Amino acid sequence: MNKIEDVPGVGLATAQKLRAAGFHTLESIAVASGRELAEMAGLTEERAREFSKRAREMLNLNFLTAEELLTRRQNIARLTTGCKSLDDLLGGGVETQGILELIGQYGVGKTQICLALCVFVQQPVEMGGLEGSALYLDTEGTFRPERIIEIARGREIPTETILKNIIVARAFNSDHQVLIAEKLDEIIQEKNIKLVIVDSIISHFRAEYLGRESLPTRQQRLNQHLHKLLRMAEVFNIPVVVTNQVVASPDAFFGPPNKPAGGHILAHLSTNRVFLRKGKRYTRIARIIDSPYLPEGECIFKITEKGVEDVPP
Ligand SMILES: Nc1ncnc2c1ncn2[C@@H]1O[C@H](COP(=O)(O)OP(=O)(O)OP(=O)(O)O)[C@@H](O)[C@H]1O
Ligand SMILES: [Mg+2]
Protein backbone atom coordinates (compact mmCIF):
# COMPACT_ATOMS: atom_id res chain seq x y z
CA MET A 1 0.00 0.00 0.00
CA ASN A 2 1.30 3.46 -0.89
CA LYS A 3 1.97 6.06 1.80
CA ILE A 4 1.53 9.79 1.29
CA GLU A 5 5.34 10.19 1.27
CA ASP A 6 5.36 8.15 -1.93
CA VAL A 7 3.70 11.00 -3.82
CA PRO A 8 6.53 12.63 -5.79
CA GLY A 9 7.43 15.96 -4.19
CA VAL A 10 5.92 15.23 -0.78
CA GLY A 11 8.77 15.33 1.71
CA LEU A 12 8.76 14.58 5.40
CA ALA A 13 7.66 18.06 6.46
CA THR A 14 4.82 18.22 3.92
CA ALA A 15 3.68 14.74 4.89
CA GLN A 16 3.52 15.91 8.48
CA LYS A 17 1.43 18.94 7.53
CA LEU A 18 -0.89 16.77 5.47
CA ARG A 19 -1.36 14.26 8.27
CA ALA A 20 -2.00 17.01 10.80
CA ALA A 21 -4.73 18.31 8.51
CA GLY A 22 -6.34 14.87 8.35
CA PHE A 23 -4.96 13.65 5.02
CA HIS A 24 -3.57 10.27 5.94
CA THR A 25 -3.99 8.31 2.75
CA LEU A 26 -3.32 8.65 -0.94
CA GLU A 27 -7.06 8.44 -1.55
CA SER A 28 -7.81 11.41 0.69
CA ILE A 29 -5.30 13.56 -1.22
CA ALA A 30 -6.43 12.29 -4.60
CA VAL A 31 -10.05 13.27 -4.10
CA ALA A 32 -9.50 16.59 -2.32
CA SER A 33 -9.85 19.77 -4.36
CA GLY A 34 -6.68 21.84 -4.70
CA ARG A 35 -8.13 24.69 -2.69
CA GLU A 36 -9.38 22.44 0.08
CA LEU A 37 -5.99 20.74 0.38
CA ALA A 38 -4.15 24.06 0.29
CA GLU A 39 -6.32 25.68 2.95
CA MET A 40 -6.33 22.75 5.32
CA ALA A 41 -2.67 21.77 5.08
CA GLY A 42 -1.22 25.26 4.68
CA LEU A 43 0.27 24.69 1.22
CA THR A 44 0.19 26.89 -1.84
CA GLU A 45 -2.74 26.07 -4.05
CA GLU A 46 -0.38 25.25 -6.90
CA ARG A 47 1.53 22.61 -4.92
CA ALA A 48 -1.66 21.22 -3.47
CA ARG A 49 -3.15 20.78 -6.92
CA GLU A 50 0.02 19.09 -8.14
CA PHE A 51 0.04 16.62 -5.22
CA SER A 52 -3.60 15.83 -5.75
CA LYS A 53 -2.98 15.21 -9.44
CA ARG A 54 -0.03 12.91 -8.74
CA ALA A 55 -1.97 10.97 -6.14
CA ARG A 56 -4.76 10.48 -8.66
CA GLU A 57 -2.27 9.22 -11.21
CA MET A 58 -0.81 6.78 -8.69
CA LEU A 59 -4.28 5.46 -7.94
CA ASN A 60 -5.31 5.41 -11.56
CA LEU A 61 -8.26 7.67 -10.83
CA ASN A 62 -7.98 10.00 -13.80
CA PHE A 63 -9.81 8.71 -16.82
CA LEU A 64 -12.10 5.76 -16.94
CA THR A 65 -13.44 4.14 -20.04
CA ALA A 66 -17.12 3.32 -19.89
CA GLU A 67 -16.05 -0.30 -19.62
CA GLU A 68 -13.92 0.42 -16.54
CA LEU A 69 -16.82 2.37 -15.11
CA LEU A 70 -19.02 -0.65 -15.64
CA THR A 71 -16.48 -2.85 -13.84
CA ARG A 72 -16.46 -0.42 -10.94
CA ARG A 73 -20.23 -0.44 -10.84
CA GLN A 74 -20.19 -4.22 -10.92
CA ASN A 75 -18.32 -4.04 -7.62
CA ILE A 76 -21.36 -2.43 -6.01
CA ALA A 77 -22.37 -4.65 -3.12
CA ARG A 78 -25.60 -4.62 -1.15
CA LEU A 79 -26.25 -4.60 2.55
CA THR A 80 -29.46 -6.04 3.94
CA THR A 81 -31.74 -4.05 6.25
CA GLY A 82 -33.07 -7.32 7.67
CA CYS A 83 -36.43 -6.62 6.06
CA LYS A 84 -37.17 -8.23 2.69
CA SER A 85 -39.67 -5.65 1.46
CA LEU A 86 -37.37 -2.75 2.35
CA ASP A 87 -34.42 -4.48 0.64
CA ASP A 88 -36.54 -5.04 -2.47
CA LEU A 89 -37.60 -1.40 -2.49
CA LEU A 90 -33.90 -0.45 -2.49
CA GLY A 91 -33.17 -2.78 -5.39
CA GLY A 92 -31.73 -5.55 -3.21
CA GLY A 93 -30.43 -3.74 -0.13
CA VAL A 94 -28.44 -0.62 0.67
CA GLU A 95 -25.88 -0.22 -2.09
CA THR A 96 -22.21 0.66 -1.75
CA GLN A 97 -20.62 3.62 -3.58
CA GLY A 98 -23.52 5.90 -2.72
CA ILE A 99 -25.40 7.81 -0.06
CA LEU A 100 -28.75 6.52 1.19
CA GLU A 101 -30.84 9.21 2.84
CA LEU A 102 -33.55 8.21 5.32
CA ILE A 103 -36.06 11.00 5.71
CA GLY A 104 -38.90 11.28 8.17
CA GLN A 105 -40.51 12.71 11.27
CA TYR A 106 -39.32 11.97 14.80
CA GLY A 107 -40.04 8.45 15.95
CA VAL A 108 -40.61 7.08 12.47
CA GLY A 109 -37.69 4.63 12.67
CA LYS A 110 -34.67 6.26 10.99
CA THR A 111 -32.32 5.48 13.87
CA GLN A 112 -33.76 1.97 14.22
CA ILE A 113 -32.87 1.16 10.61
CA CYS A 114 -29.35 2.55 11.14
CA LEU A 115 -28.83 0.43 14.26
CA ALA A 116 -30.01 -2.70 12.45
CA LEU A 117 -27.58 -1.99 9.58
CA CYS A 118 -24.72 -1.82 12.13
CA VAL A 119 -25.56 -5.41 13.08
CA PHE A 120 -26.02 -6.79 9.56
CA VAL A 121 -22.90 -5.18 8.07
CA GLN A 122 -20.85 -7.54 10.24
CA GLN A 123 -22.49 -10.62 8.76
CA PRO A 124 -21.00 -12.77 5.98
CA VAL A 125 -21.79 -11.73 2.42
CA GLU A 126 -24.04 -14.74 1.86
CA MET A 127 -26.18 -13.51 4.78
CA GLY A 128 -26.53 -10.06 3.25
CA GLY A 129 -23.63 -8.46 5.16
CA LEU A 130 -20.38 -6.85 4.07
CA GLU A 131 -18.08 -8.58 6.57
CA GLY A 132 -16.86 -5.37 8.14
CA SER A 133 -17.30 -2.88 10.93
CA ALA A 134 -19.57 0.15 11.20
CA LEU A 135 -18.80 3.74 12.00
CA TYR A 136 -21.66 5.64 13.60
CA LEU A 137 -21.42 9.41 13.56
CA ASP A 138 -23.96 10.29 16.22
CA THR A 139 -25.04 13.93 16.32
CA GLU A 140 -28.06 13.51 18.57
CA GLY A 141 -26.78 11.10 21.18
CA THR A 142 -29.34 8.43 20.29
CA PHE A 143 -27.00 5.49 19.62
CA ARG A 144 -27.88 2.67 22.03
CA PRO A 145 -25.54 -0.32 22.45
CA GLU A 146 -28.28 -2.19 24.36
CA ARG A 147 -30.49 -1.98 21.30
CA ILE A 148 -27.71 -3.41 19.11
CA ILE A 149 -27.48 -6.42 21.45
CA GLU A 150 -31.26 -6.83 21.39
CA ILE A 151 -31.38 -6.83 17.58
CA ALA A 152 -28.49 -9.30 17.32
CA ARG A 153 -30.08 -11.66 19.88
CA GLY A 154 -33.42 -11.42 18.08
CA ARG A 155 -31.67 -12.57 14.91
CA GLU A 156 -29.65 -15.25 16.68
CA ILE A 157 -26.41 -13.52 15.79
CA PRO A 158 -23.57 -14.06 18.31
CA THR A 159 -23.06 -10.93 20.40
CA GLU A 160 -19.49 -11.28 21.76
CA THR A 161 -17.84 -9.06 19.17
CA ILE A 162 -20.84 -7.14 17.86
CA LEU A 163 -20.19 -3.97 19.90
CA LYS A 164 -16.41 -4.05 19.38
CA ASN A 165 -17.04 -3.72 15.66
CA ILE A 166 -19.06 -0.53 15.90
CA ILE A 167 -17.16 2.69 16.36
CA VAL A 168 -19.27 5.53 17.68
CA ALA A 169 -18.17 9.12 17.15
CA ARG A 170 -20.28 11.68 18.95
CA ALA A 171 -20.34 15.05 17.15
CA PHE A 172 -21.21 17.99 19.39
CA ASN A 173 -21.65 20.65 16.72
CA SER A 174 -21.49 20.96 12.94
CA ASP A 175 -17.77 21.90 12.92
CA HIS A 176 -17.03 18.81 14.94
CA GLN A 177 -19.19 16.69 12.65
CA VAL A 178 -17.38 17.96 9.53
CA LEU A 179 -13.99 17.46 11.19
CA ILE A 180 -14.76 13.85 12.10
CA ALA A 181 -15.82 13.13 8.52
CA GLU A 182 -12.59 14.71 7.21
CA LYS A 183 -10.52 12.32 9.33
CA LEU A 184 -12.35 9.13 8.50
CA ASP A 185 -10.17 7.80 5.67
CA GLU A 186 -7.51 6.30 7.85
CA ILE A 187 -9.84 4.66 10.32
CA ILE A 188 -11.89 3.18 7.48
CA GLN A 189 -8.85 1.29 6.24
CA GLU A 190 -7.45 0.49 9.65
CA LYS A 191 -10.66 -0.90 11.14
CA ASN A 192 -12.15 -2.43 8.00
CA ILE A 193 -15.17 -0.11 8.14
CA LYS A 194 -17.83 -1.17 5.62
CA LEU A 195 -20.62 1.17 6.65
CA VAL A 196 -20.68 4.82 7.66
CA ILE A 197 -23.76 6.30 9.29
CA VAL A 198 -24.44 9.97 9.98
CA ASP A 199 -27.47 10.27 12.27
CA SER A 200 -28.53 12.99 11.68
CA ILE A 201 -26.82 14.81 8.83
CA ILE A 202 -28.74 18.01 9.34
CA SER A 203 -29.68 18.64 13.00
CA HIS A 204 -26.57 20.62 14.00
CA PHE A 205 -26.66 22.64 10.81
CA ARG A 206 -30.29 23.54 11.32
CA ALA A 207 -29.78 24.47 14.95
CA GLU A 208 -26.71 26.62 14.29
CA TYR A 209 -27.61 28.48 11.13
CA LEU A 210 -30.76 30.38 11.93
CA GLY A 211 -32.24 32.98 9.67
CA ARG A 212 -32.29 33.44 5.94
CA GLU A 213 -29.01 35.34 5.69
CA SER A 214 -27.00 32.38 7.05
CA LEU A 215 -28.58 29.89 4.66
CA PRO A 216 -26.01 30.19 1.83
CA THR A 217 -23.13 29.56 4.26
CA ARG A 218 -24.94 26.59 5.75
CA GLN A 219 -25.67 25.08 2.37
CA GLN A 220 -22.10 25.53 1.22
CA ARG A 221 -20.73 23.73 4.28
CA LEU A 222 -23.32 20.99 4.02
CA ASN A 223 -22.40 20.61 0.36
CA GLN A 224 -18.71 20.09 1.18
CA HIS A 225 -19.57 17.67 3.96
CA LEU A 226 -21.76 15.57 1.67
CA HIS A 227 -19.20 15.64 -1.12
CA LYS A 228 -16.65 14.26 1.29
CA LEU A 229 -19.03 11.48 2.34
CA LEU A 230 -19.89 10.61 -1.24
CA ARG A 231 -16.24 10.40 -2.27
CA MET A 232 -15.59 8.14 0.70
CA ALA A 233 -18.43 5.86 -0.38
CA GLU A 234 -16.97 5.65 -3.89
CA VAL A 235 -13.30 5.26 -3.03
CA PHE A 236 -13.84 2.62 -0.34
CA ASN A 237 -16.82 0.91 -1.97
CA ILE A 238 -19.05 1.26 1.11
CA PRO A 239 -22.56 2.56 1.75
CA VAL A 240 -23.00 5.86 3.58
CA VAL A 241 -26.38 6.21 5.28
CA VAL A 242 -27.57 9.59 6.52
CA THR A 243 -30.79 10.55 8.29
CA ASN A 244 -32.71 13.72 7.59
CA GLN A 245 -35.62 15.50 9.20
CA VAL A 246 -38.71 16.90 7.57
CA VAL A 247 -39.89 20.47 7.58
CA ALA A 248 -43.38 21.77 7.06
CA SER A 249 -43.96 23.02 3.54
CA PRO A 250 -46.53 25.80 3.94
CA ASP A 251 -46.82 26.23 0.18
CA ALA A 252 -48.04 22.66 -0.23
CA PHE A 253 -51.77 23.19 -0.49
CA PHE A 254 -52.50 19.89 -2.18
CA GLY A 255 -49.20 18.04 -1.95
CA PRO A 256 -47.57 16.44 1.09
CA PRO A 257 -47.46 18.69 4.15
CA ASN A 258 -43.85 17.78 4.89
CA LYS A 259 -40.71 17.89 2.81
CA PRO A 260 -37.11 16.83 3.48
CA ALA A 261 -34.89 19.43 5.17
CA GLY A 262 -31.61 20.45 3.58
CA GLY A 263 -32.96 21.66 0.26
CA HIS A 264 -31.37 20.97 -3.09
CA ILE A 265 -27.96 20.03 -1.72
CA LEU A 266 -29.22 16.84 -0.11
CA ALA A 267 -31.56 16.09 -2.98
CA HIS A 268 -28.68 16.40 -5.39
CA LEU A 269 -26.00 14.48 -3.52
CA SER A 270 -28.01 11.60 -2.08
CA THR A 271 -27.90 8.60 -4.38
CA ASN A 272 -31.17 7.24 -3.05
CA ARG A 273 -33.76 8.93 -0.87
CA VAL A 274 -36.32 7.07 1.19
CA PHE A 275 -39.21 8.89 2.77
CA LEU A 276 -40.61 7.18 5.88
CA ARG A 277 -44.00 7.76 7.45
CA LYS A 278 -46.26 6.13 9.98
CA GLY A 279 -48.96 3.83 8.63
CA LYS A 280 -51.99 2.14 10.13
CA ARG A 281 -51.55 0.69 13.61
CA TYR A 282 -47.86 0.11 14.28
CA THR A 283 -46.72 -0.05 10.69
CA ARG A 284 -44.31 2.18 8.86
CA ILE A 285 -44.33 3.01 5.16
CA ALA A 286 -41.19 3.62 3.12
CA ARG A 287 -41.28 5.34 -0.25
CA ILE A 288 -38.49 5.98 -2.76
CA ILE A 289 -38.42 9.59 -3.85
CA ASP A 290 -36.79 11.05 -6.95
CA SER A 291 -34.42 8.15 -7.70
CA PRO A 292 -32.42 8.23 -10.95
CA TYR A 293 -32.99 4.50 -11.54
CA LEU A 294 -35.06 2.80 -8.81
CA PRO A 295 -38.71 2.42 -9.71
CA GLU A 296 -41.12 4.49 -7.64
CA GLY A 297 -42.75 2.37 -5.03
CA GLU A 298 -43.70 1.85 -1.44
CA CYS A 299 -43.36 -0.88 1.12
CA ILE A 300 -44.69 -1.54 4.59
CA PHE A 301 -42.54 -2.62 7.51
CA LYS A 302 -42.59 -2.62 11.29
CA ILE A 303 -40.13 -1.97 14.08
CA THR A 304 -39.67 -4.93 16.40
CA GLU A 305 -37.11 -6.31 18.83
CA LYS A 306 -35.38 -7.78 15.76
CA GLY A 307 -34.88 -4.37 14.17
CA VAL A 308 -37.07 -3.78 11.15
CA GLU A 309 -39.23 -6.55 9.74
CA ASP A 310 -41.80 -7.30 7.09
CA VAL A 311 -45.49 -7.01 7.91
CA PRO A 312 -47.21 -10.30 7.06
CA PRO A 313 -50.04 -9.74 4.57
N1 LIG B 1 -37.04 -2.60 20.91
C1 LIG B 1 -38.01 -2.06 20.18
N2 LIG B 1 -39.05 -2.79 19.77
C2 LIG B 1 -40.04 -2.25 19.04
N3 LIG B 1 -40.07 -0.95 18.68
C3 LIG B 1 -39.06 -0.17 19.06
C4 LIG B 1 -37.97 -0.67 19.82
N4 LIG B 1 -37.12 0.33 20.04
C5 LIG B 1 -37.65 1.42 19.45
N5 LIG B 1 -38.81 1.14 18.87
C6 LIG B 1 -39.71 2.08 18.16
O1 LIG B 1 -38.95 2.86 17.31
C7 LIG B 1 -39.51 4.17 17.25
C8 LIG B 1 -38.40 5.19 17.36
O2 LIG B 1 -37.74 5.18 16.18
P1 LIG B 1 -36.40 6.00 15.94
O3 LIG B 1 -35.73 6.35 17.20
O4 LIG B 1 -35.65 5.26 14.93
O5 LIG B 1 -36.98 7.33 15.29
P2 LIG B 1 -36.23 8.40 14.42
O6 LIG B 1 -36.88 8.37 13.10
O7 LIG B 1 -34.78 8.19 14.50
O8 LIG B 1 -36.66 9.74 15.16
P3 LIG B 1 -35.84 11.07 15.49
O9 LIG B 1 -36.08 12.00 14.33
O10 LIG B 1 -36.46 11.57 16.73
O11 LIG B 1 -34.41 10.69 15.67
C9 LIG B 1 -40.49 4.30 18.36
O12 LIG B 1 -41.78 4.33 17.77
C10 LIG B 1 -40.34 3.03 19.15
O13 LIG B 1 -41.55 2.56 19.56
MG1 LIG C 1 -33.21 9.19 15.40
Compile the SSE list and pairings.
Blueprint: H1 12-20, H2 26-30, H3 34-41, H4 45-58, H5 66-74, E1 78-79, H6 84-89, E2 94-95, E3 98-104, H7 110-120, E4 133-138, H8 145-154, E5 166-170, H9 174-182, H10 184-190, E6 193-199, H11 203-208, H12 215-236, E7 239-244, E8 246-248, E9 258-260, H13 263-269, E10 272-278, E11 283-289, E12 298-304, E13 307-310
Parallel strand pairs: 3-7, 3-10, 4-5, 4-6, 6-7
Antiparallel strand pairs: 1-2, 8-9, 10-11, 11-12, 12-13
Helix pairs in contact: 3-4, 7-8, 12-13
The structure holds adenosine-5'-triphosphate and magnesium ion (MG).
Adenosine-5'-triphosphate (ATP) is lined by residues 104, 106-112, 142, 150, 303-305.
Percent of residues in helices comes to 25-40%
Query: What general outline do the C-alpha atoms trace?
Result: globular
The hetero compounds bound to this protein are: adenosine-5'-triphosphate, magnesium ion
Which CATH first-tier class of the largest domain would you pick?
Answer: Alpha Beta
CATH architectural category of the largest domain: 3-Layer(aba) Sandwich
Order of helices and strands: HHHHHEHEEHEHEHHEHHEEEHEEEE
Oligomer: single chain
CATH topology group of the largest domain: Rossmann fold
Which spans have pLDDT < 50 for at least 5 consecutive residues?
Answer: none
Overall number of structural domains: 2
**In angstroms, what separates the terminal alpha carbons?**
51 Å
* Average pLDDT metric: 92
Strand percentage, roughly? Answer: 15-25%
Radius of gyration from CA coordinates: 20 Å
Q: What's the total number of strands?
A: 13
Structural class: alpha/beta
Number of helices: 13
Strand order of the largest sheet: 5-4-6-7-3-10-11-12-13
- Characterize the biggest β-sheet: 9 strands, mixed
Corresponding CATH superfamily of the largest domain = P-loop containing nucleotide triphosphate hydrolases
